[in-house]
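During the no-cost extension, the postdoctoral fellow (Dr. R.K.) reprocessed legacy sequence entries with the updated structure-token encoder. One reprocessed record is reproduced below for audit purposes.
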Amino acid sequence: MGRIGCGFLLLVLVVLCGEAWVYVQVARAMDNEWLGAALALVVLSIAGWRILRWRGQRLAMAMMGGDPGRYMVALLGAALLVLPGFATAVLGILLQIPPFTGLLARPAKRLMRHFAGAAAARMGGTMGNPAAGNPFANPMGGAFPGAFPFATGGLRPDQSQPFSGKTIDAKAKRTDAD
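Re-encoded structure tokens follow.
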């Protein structure tokens, strides 16, 4: 096991021990109400799942627009809320608050660009470039037809086609054929 793997394992063990200690302290503060503390963890996890789903949908749109930093931090906070523990829940709630999200948005965006660059390098540098032999690349160079490359800020999907002002009713009408 390499240095990173050992460090990660040590971090997980420290977090688990810390969460167990915080759980005992919270239960003691609630007059040894162990079931109430466990119920609070379940409620926090359910709330975390709902926020995680909502933030995940927003992150996909932000990635297409080229600015995923804030949404990435908020998604990390929602994932921390899902984990059973009071310390991770407090950190997850803090990462949902806009000032904390804004504080970490730029480093999260840089980290995401680093991972995207590493993924492109592992694919032989052909990610998004049809001329380099990637058969799945968009000829326009973006994440969806009509988009610009990720590095330039991109084009939002709702801006890809101008609105003509005409509304089309797409409801199917039933006709009874005798």
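Helices lie at 3-29, 34-65, 69-82, 86-94, 98-122. Residues 51 and 78 are 6 Å apart (CA to CA). The remaining legacy entries will be reprocessed before the final report is submitted.
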